[in-house]
Amino acid sequence: MNQVVNIARWEYLTRIRSRWFIISTLLIPVIMIVSMLVPTLLMTSEDTESRLIAIVDGSAQYGHLFEQMITHKYELKDGRPKYQIILLQGRDYAEMKGQALELLDSSLVTACIIIPEDLSESRELRYYAKNLGNFKDQAELQITLQDLFIRQRLVDAAVSEEVIDSVTRPLNFTLMEIGKEGEEQEADELLSFLTPIIFVLMLFLSIFMSSQILLRSVIEERMNRLVEILLSSVSPTQLMAGKITGLGLLGLTQVGVYLVLGQVVSTFQGYAILTSESTLFFLVYFVLGYLFYAAIFAAIGSIFNSEHEAQQASSLFSLICILPIMLSSYVISDPNSTTSVVLGFIPFITPFIMILRIGVEMPQLWEIIASILVMAVSVVLAILAAGKIFKTAILVYGKRPTLSVIWQWLRT
User: Fold this and answer.
1) Residues paired with 54 in a beta bridge
2) Cα separation, 28 vs 199, whole angstroms
3) Residue 82 main-chain phi, psi, to 5 deg
4) How far, in Å, CA of 230 to CA of 240, rounded?
5) Among 128, 199, 319, 394, which one is most buried in terms of CB atoms within 10 A?
6) How far is CA 59 from CA 40, 146, 202, 262, in A?
């Protein structure tokens, strides 16, 4: 036991004094915050340039009304209309459509909207643009056209202006959340979405930075024959246990820094992104996730003779762990769906999925306990498998073992 403690202490103190570790620990939160907030701020920032939109009004009924509504509804900071309209109507429908598409093709207009002659029956509008990724403009134009269509149908039905204004007046939709003691408070939509994703990214970076350090350490000691000297004093199991423990503490130190910085920033902004429960579960899943992947990366480091080859193999597991980030929008939007629950019991992604679910809405207690047990069993199996591979492969030089040979080691 003393040998394991000594190895863990040496690994921890050696790595934590590294300049690169200190710099990366301080810079990674800044990079994460900037990479997530800057695109959001850019997308939600006010526009500074007007858009020129071509409207082909085959109905000869909605064009002028849409122009009046859109130019007064959306304005730039300097008071100019955000949308300026080129209205085409009163001529041959096909000719007007062709002219509008020519304006779009020559980039004289940002987009063009085609209003058919039978809009009341077909209820179909067509939107043309070279950049179909500008969802904000599309949404504003679509909402305005929808409001205009409803208002005009009410006018055609001889409904008074007072009733129309009352019916079409938009509702204020305020997000609320219930606290532990039943108190009501206004929720922040952006914060509710970003908090679990930030937790997952912290988990991902902490696990893989520590595990990558472990992988390189095993390869270096193996190639420099230092492992032969080490194994003369300790057993392979003690060596790996010490390395995993020391680097695990290093990862926890990194997570602690992230949590403190996150709490300070959120408190300064008047938010509470951390609670005692969420922080506790985050640490539990971090430890289990780290141990699971540390065993895998240690086994990879034992097999390969160069860091380049090992990195290629470990990239497969990196891709697997990107999967929860790709699925984060779905899990956040529906954390209690069957798919989200099932994903929480797949060992390779269990820590990430459960952190996402806990960040949005606390799962049932049996789900948390069951997922922790699944991870605990997976950790034990992974460490046992990695131990067998390490004991057999650590002193093998030259020829890299094949998958069939590795499988024989595991079966022995």
Assistant:
1) 86, 112
2) 13
3) -70, -35
4) 11
5) 199
6) 39, 15, 55, 56
What pairs with residue 178 in β-bridges?
A: 184
Q: What is the dihedral of CA 127, 128, 132, 134, to 10 degrees?
A: -60
Give the helix, strand, coil percentages of the chain, each rounded to 5. Answer: 70, 5, 25
Span 154-199, pLDDT tens digits: 877 787 778 777 777 777 766 666 655 656 655 555 555 666 777 7
Given a contact cutoff of 8 angstroms between Cβ atoms, the answer to whether 293 and 207 are in contact is yes
What pTM was estimated for this model as a whole? 0.65
- Residue 25: pLDDT band (50, 70, 90) is confident
SS3 326: helix
The CA distance from 203 to 212, in Å, is 14
Q: Report domain extents, the chain.
A: 2-39+189-411, 51-172
Q: Give the DSSP letter of residue 361.
A: S
Partners of 282 in the β-ladder: none
Tokens, residue 330: 């779905």
Give the Cα separation of 353 and 344 in Å (integer). Answer: 5
Task: Give the mean pLDDT of 7-29.
Answer: 78
Q: How many CB atoms are closer than 10 A to CB 240?
A: 26
Q: Which residues contact 28 (CB under 8 A, 6 or more apart)?
A: 205, 258
Q: Which residue has the higher pLDDT, 321 or 85?
A: 85
Give buried/exposed letters for 131-143 (b at 16+ CB in 10 A, else e): eeeeeebeebbee
CA dist., res. 150 & res. 120, Å (int): 10
Superfamily grouping for domain 51-172 = Periplasmic binding protein-like II (3.40.190.10)
Q: How many CB atoms lie within 10 A of CB 6?
A: 15
Separation CA 7–CA 385 (nearest Å): 21
Between CA 22 and CA 27, with CA 23 as vertex, the angle to 5 degrees is 120
